[in-house]
Specification:
binds L-homoserine; 11-stranded mixed beta sheet; 17 strands; alpha/beta; 6-stranded parallel beta sheet; 15 helices; Dihydrodipicolinate Reductase, domain 2
Length: about 425
């Protein structure tokens, strides 16, 4: 059988990886797919760069629409990124009846519902394993491997840049800004790292996982997003003294009041396996009713890890293209007419535990005032750490870990605590998850 003809749009790092891995492992991949996979055409503005990787065997064009208009191309790989031209090209490829494989998390998180509707109408596959956690097959696991389960929650370290920065901050006791500069110098962080450090990239990925886990539309616009830019080295140190690590987590949970969908720095017990995920690595922990806890670990970015996911999608296309579209695994795991409009809860309504750092005047009664405010709001204290005041000073740090409460109760308690004459400056609040 003739190999499936593939067009690749955007030959950057991942595109190069796809090309290399397909060439290197073609025999093994063909044994699995039952058919060869041939990249027949590549679109990229830098034709010379593509030639250096792909040689003369592949048709190289500057205009991606030549791929869409090529009747021999059955599958388009979109590796351009972003939601500008990439969105237009993906929709045009679908309209032309081509299957699409993409690594574009922003596109799926923001325009996924529209793209899946268009693809459903045309009966084509849109596959996006590489969009979440790079080489970790988490989409496959959530959508197929865990299909017997009622998934309860997912918590993931799904941004390598920020995990690298947090690991460095903890190991070296450095502040965020210093580590970011070093990470940029070493090439771990982009020149413009906004999407990573502000939590947007992680929120894209969390929104996609949330939709697949709970059978709801993709709702990036409802995600609560906080990055790591305001995180102080001192909090990482205090957390460690209390037996916790701070990670930027993408969290989504099913609750009786709706779905929680949030990205923020989070204290997690140091003894959890996921807490020891360091550097640029990714990990996703899933809790589901039948299987219990499962943990998926690996490289969340990079040429070949991401190519691994892209090629797995290509093999799926080869295997499933002849299958009646209604019999294929649904894009978001659940049958389209069974997707529910479960509300995504606002951050004030979520329930979690908290780490609080207060700077207090070290006089009698301070602690009593603070604990009374918390008790009045039914917020129970789990642990307390009071640092000794430095010699000659009468103020010190007070760290409080609380049990679970609703965010709105915590916000109102913090307001009252900050109004106390004995509390200096604002209270630092970091959410805490036991992940048990
Ligand atoms: N910039 C992402 C990260 C990789 O740092 O994990 C691509 O999503």
């Amino acid at each position: 059988m003739k190999p499936i003809q593939v067009g690749l749009m955007g030959m950057g790092t991942v595109g190069g990886g796809v090309f290399t891995v397909l060439e290197r492992n073609q025999e093994e991949i063909q044994r699995r797919a039952g058919r060869g996979i041939h990249i027949a055409q590549i679109a990229d503005l830098d034709i010379e760069k593509v030639k250096a990787i792909a040689g003369d065997k592949v048709k190289i064009v500057a205009d991606a629409r030549q791929i869409i208009n090529n009747p021999d191309i059955e599958v388009v790989i979109e590796l351009i990124g972003g939601y500008g031209i990439a969105k237009a090209l993906v929709l045009e490829a679908i309209a032309a009846g081509k299957h699409v494989v993409t690594a574009n998390k922003a596109l799926i998180a923001v325009h996924g519902n529209e793209i899946f509707n268009a693809a459903r109408e045309k009966g084509v596959i849109v596959a996006f394993e590489a969009a979440v956690a790079g080489g970790i097959p988490i989409i496959k696991a959530l959508r197929e491997g865990l299909t017997a389960n009622r998934i309860e929650w997912i918590a993931g370290i799904i941004n390598g840049t920020t995990n690298f920065i947090l690991s460095e901050m903890r190991e070296k006791g450095l502040d965020f800004a210093d580590v970011l500069k070093e990470a940029q110098r070493l090439g771990y962080a982009e020149a413009d790292p906004t999407f990573d450090i502000e939590g947007i990239d992680a929120a894209h990925k969390a929104s996609i996982m949330s939709a697949i886990a709970f059978g709801i539309p993709v709702q990036f616009d409802k995600a609560h997003i906080e990055g790591i830019t305001k995180l102080a080295a001192v909090d990482i140190r205090y957390a460690e003294q209390l037996g916790y690590r701070i990670k930027l987590l993408g969290i989504t949970k099913r609750t009786k009041d709706g779905v929680e969908l949030r990205v923020h720095p989070t204290l997690i017990p140091a003894k959890r396996l996921i807490a020891s995920v360091e550097g640029a690595m990714n990990a996703v922990q899933v809790y589901a009713d039948a299987v219990g806890t499962t943990l998926y670990y690996g490289k969340g970015a990079g040429a070949e890890p991401t190519a691994s996911a892209v090629i797995a999608d290509l093999v799926d296309v080869v295997r499933l293209q002849a299958v009646d579209p209604k019999q294929r695994v649904p894009y978001l795991a659940f049958q389209e007419n069974r997707v529910k409009d479960t509300i995504v809860m606002s951050i004030e309504d979520i329930t979690t535990s908290y780490y609080l750092r207060l700077h207090v005047v070290d006089v009698a009664g301070v602690l009593a005032d603070i604990t009374r405010i918390l008790a009045d709001k039914n917020i129970s204290i789990d642990a307390l750490l009071q640092k000794e005041a430095l010699e000659g000073q009468n103020h010190t740090d007070l760290i409080i870990l609380t049990h679970q409460t609703q965010e709105k109760h915590m916000l109102s308690a913090i307001k009252e605590i900050e109004a106390l004459a004995t509390v200096q400056g604002s209270v630092t609040k970091i959410r805490l998850e036991e992940l048990s």
